[in-house]
Amino acid sequence: MMQSAKNRICLWYDHDAEEAARFYASTFPDSSVGALCRAPADYPSGKRGDLLTVEFTLMGIPCLGLNGGPGVKHSWAFSFQIATETQAETDRYWHAIIDNGGQASECGWCQDKWGLSWQITPLALTQAIADPDLAAARRAFEAMMQMSKIDIATIEAARRG
At 67, is the pLDDT very low, low, confident or very high (cuts 50, 70, 90)? Predict the structure, then answer.
């Protein structure tokens, strides 16, 4: 059983919080699945004994998956941003999410099959768009705006001009 965190992120799922937590734990380092809690009584979207919550850690961040039922959707307004160091790491996380029923979006964003948003962001991109040379930063930013999954070599080439 995991220690209860003073503050953690609670994520709403439609009866598949455990599946999501296990996927995250198998995909990202410093991630694990902890305590499972079953409903002690019937509730609006479930029955007594159904899995109600799952505690998990996602890259060191304590989370709680709540099987709240249908009708509540995740939004782009909340996302996990994963900083990557290499193209291989970027590709690995991107494809883990996309190939498991997720959807690609623009500028390094994607959604997993549960509708949770992710930003797979190479450190090279973060450094490029913060370059004190505003022309270099603009070129890197404009290159990023044309991408779905971030390509580090293209970002670095744009930064150099």
Answer: very high
Residues β-bridged to residue 88: none
Please state, in angstroms and rounded to a whole number, the distance separating the CA atoms of residues 11 and 64.
6
State the amino acid at position 93 in one-letter form: Y
Separation between Cα atoms, residue 14 and residue 69, nearest integer Å: 4
**CA 112 → CA 36, 78, 94, distances in Å?**
22, 13, 10
If one counts every other C-beta atom within 10 angstroms of the C-beta of residue 37, the result is 13
Secondary structure of residue 130 in the 3-state scheme: coil
The pTM score is: 0.92
CA separation, residue 103 to residues 33, 96, 97, 98 (Å): 24, 11, 8, 5
CB within 8 A of 98, min separation 6: which ones? 104, 110
Half-sphere exposure in the Cβ direction for 90 (13 Å, CA): 21
Q: Residue length, the chain?
A: 161
Lookup: tokens for 10: 């609670």
Inter-residue contact 107 to 144 (CB < 8 Å): yes
